[in-house]
Amino acid sequence: MTNIQSLDIKKFLPHRAPFLMVDSVITIDDEHVATSFKIREDDIFVVDGVFSEVGLVENAAQTCSSIVGKSYFAEDDIEGESTKLIGFISAIKSVKVSACPIVGETIRSDAHLVSRFDADDYSICTLSCRVSVADKELLSCILNLFIQKIN
C-alpha cells in the first residue's frame, strides 16, 4: 500500500470546489483507498452545522473513483498531467446512513474494489465504502461507477 499524503487530490479528480469532497488520500493501492475530509461550515452539503447524507454519498463516490482512476495515470505522474477522466455513479446498490458528521469533524472513507470491467477507454466497477468519524460508522454503501478517459 502506498502512503501518499502529500498527493494533491485535486489534480486527479475532475471535481472542483465547492464540489470536491476529499481533502487527502491517506493510502491507496489497486484494491483499496483511504481518504480524509474535514467538514467545513461553508461546504455546500452542510445544513445547520451538519454534513448531509447526500454529501456523505458524494464523498464515498469520489473516494471510490480514485482506486480505478489511478490506473489511468502513469506511476510517476504525481501531478496528474498524463490524462483526464470523467466519472459518475451509475448505480447505488445499497446505502445505509447511521449518522451525519458536524462542522469541524474529519471523516475517513475506506473503499474496496469489488469488481471491475475494463474496455479501451473506460471502466465499469463496483466498490464498497465505509465512511466514519473517530471509528464510528456514518455510512456504508456499495456503488457502481463509470470512469472514462477523455481526450
Architecture overview:
The chain has 151 residues and is mainly β. It has a single domain (2-150), classed as Thiol Ester Dehydrase, Chain A. Helices cover 11% and strands 48% of the residues. The protein contains one helix and nine strands; from the N terminus they run E-E-E-E-E-H-E-E-E-E. The chain has one helix at 53-69, and strands spanning 2-3, 24-28, 32-38, 46-47, 50-51, 84-97, 106-118, 122-133, 136-150. The strands form two sheets. A seven-stranded antiparallel β-sheet has the order 1-2-3-7-8-9-6, covered by helices on one side. Strands 4-5 form a two-stranded antiparallel ribbon. Strand 7 and strand 8 (122-133) form a beta hairpin. The mean pLDDT is 85.
Overview in brief:
This protein has 151 residues and is mainly beta.
The fourth-level CATH homologous superfamily is: Hotdog Thioesterase
The secondary-structure element order is EEEEEHEEEE
Can you tell me the CATH topology?
Answer: Thiol Ester Dehydrase, Chain A
Q: What is the count of β-strands?
A: 9
Assign a percent range to the helix content: 10-25%
What is the CATH C-level name? Alpha Beta
Q: What's the average pLDDT?
A: 85
User: What gap, in angstroms, lies between the N and C termini?
Assistant: 30 Å
Helix count, per DSSP?
1
Which architecture would the CATH scheme give at its second level?
A: Roll
Low-confidence stretches: none
Largest sheet: 7 strands, antiparallel
Structural class: mainly beta
Rg over CA atoms, rounded to whole Å, is 15 Å
β-strand amount: over 45%
Name the overall outline: globular
Number of domains: 1
Strand order of the largest sheet: 1-2-3-7-8-9-6
